[in-house]
Amino acid sequence: MDGFSVTITEAVCLGTSIALSGICYYLYRKSRATVDKLDEAPHFNIDKKLKDILKVTPGACLQYAVIEGAVKPVGKPLTSLFQKEAVGVLQRYMLKEHRLVWNRLSSTWTDSELVLHQRVNTVPFVLVGADETTIKVLSPLQASGLNMEITHEKFHQVNYGLGDIIGQYLSGEKLKGQLETEEMLKVGTTLTGIGELILDTDGTLNLRPPSNNAQYFLSITDFDTLRQEQENMNLWWKALAIASALAGALVLLWLSQRFYQHLKVRWEREEMRREFERLRAEVPAEPEENYIENACVICLSRPRDCVLLDCGHVCCCHSCYTALPQRRCPICRQNISRVMPVYHA
Ligand SMILES: [Zn+2]
Ligand SMILES: [Zn+2]
């Protein structure tokens, strides 16, 4: 439609809200599928009966099952770097740098952190059931939901001199210090595992990442808490998808309202032009010789044949009037509410 254009801000708002609602909807569907799979997954106790169940299962494999047992290392466990008595099977050491960065937009200092160093150590481990039956846990680092126990946390503050403080205000960055943390999955912790259960040919039970694209979970919380966390996440994605879709609808509504206004103005102009043509048809044409002194101030070729209201100026021809970029009198800049043909007696 000529004369109507979408501004960059409107295009960005519309594009962003459509893209966001698409992403949020996708994540909502994905987390819904995860919760549904968790609900369908059978729960088993780690005991001798589990082996018997797997023996009669096709492929000696249960695609998605929930088990719970105590963590026990297969060989020598890992020892904490900071607490000599703490032993575990998974250990994550992390050193993070914390800085304050000056934000010009909000005129405040905002926190920013950077991982300087991270190290993860693992040793093979099993989950032990009530009757000492064990299940070996494979690829634990691929599992989600594993929040380990913090065995060490220390913040190393930085001390400054006057020169440093001046430097910080000039550069807009302040170093706060370094945070050193160590997390461990300790021996003896009760762990909930959700994944594929398989009975190996040598008679060992294994828990491994599912081959059917379901999510692999290892968690130190119980199943119900884990399921609730997933459910909450699902609700969040749903709310965000609805909110961004609504925002997109609002932008569309705003655009269509603006387009309607644009059309209305065009219809009104068209209506006025027809009215003018009709009135002019009733007026006899002016003789040629009067053209020069009575020429339109804009094109200087056609006669002035209309009067602009409300100011009353007779200064231009009707074609120049319709081509005006703004509906204002070219002489006095007053708004034009109507235009009438000039009647020469
Ligand atoms: Zn003209
Ligand atoms: Zn005027």
Automatic annotation (TrEMBL):
<keyword id="KW-0812">Transmembrane</keyword>
<keyword id="KW-1133">Transmembrane helix</keyword>
<dbReference type="InterPro" id="IPR013083">
    <property type="entry name" value="Znf_RING/FYVE/PHD"/>
</dbReference>
<dbReference type="GO" id="GO:0016567">
    <property type="term" value="P:protein ubiquitination"/>
</dbReference>
<keyword id="KW-1000">Mitochondrion outer membrane</keyword>
<dbReference type="InterPro" id="IPR001841">
    <property type="entry name" value="Znf_RING"/>
</dbReference>
<feature type="transmembrane region" description="Helical">
    <location>
        <begin position="6"/>
        <end position="28"/>
    </location>
</feature>
<keyword id="KW-0496">Mitochondrion</keyword>
<keyword id="KW-0436">Ligase</keyword>
<keyword id="KW-0863">Zinc-finger</keyword>
<dbReference type="GO" id="GO:0016874">
    <property type="term" value="F:ligase activity"/>
</dbReference>
<keyword id="KW-0472">Membrane</keyword>
<dbReference type="GO" id="GO:0005741">
    <property type="term" value="C:mitochondrial outer membrane"/>
</dbReference>
<feature type="transmembrane region" description="Helical">
    <location>
        <begin position="235"/>
        <end position="255"/>
    </location>
</feature>
<dbReference type="GO" id="GO:0008270">
    <property type="term" value="F:zinc ion binding"/>
</dbReference>
<protein>
    <recommendedName>
        <fullName>RING-type E3 ubiquitin transferase</fullName>
        <ecNumber>2.3.2.27</ecNumber>
    </recommendedName>
</protein>
<feature type="domain" description="RING-type">
    <location>
        <begin position="296"/>
        <end position="333"/>
    </location>
</feature>
<keyword id="KW-0862">Zinc</keyword>
<dbReference type="GO" id="GO:0061630">
    <property type="term" value="F:ubiquitin protein ligase activity"/>
</dbReference>
<dbReference type="Pfam" id="PF12483">
    <property type="entry name" value="GIDE"/>
</dbReference>
<keyword id="KW-0479">Metal-binding</keyword>
<dbReference type="InterPro" id="IPR051652">
    <property type="entry name" value="MDM2_MDM4_MUL1"/>
</dbReference>
<dbReference type="Pfam" id="PF13920">
    <property type="entry name" value="zf-C3HC4_3"/>
</dbReference>
<dbReference type="InterPro" id="IPR022170">
    <property type="entry name" value="MUL1-like"/>
</dbReference>
<keyword id="KW-0833">Ubl conjugation pathway</keyword>
<keyword id="KW-0808">Transferase</keyword>
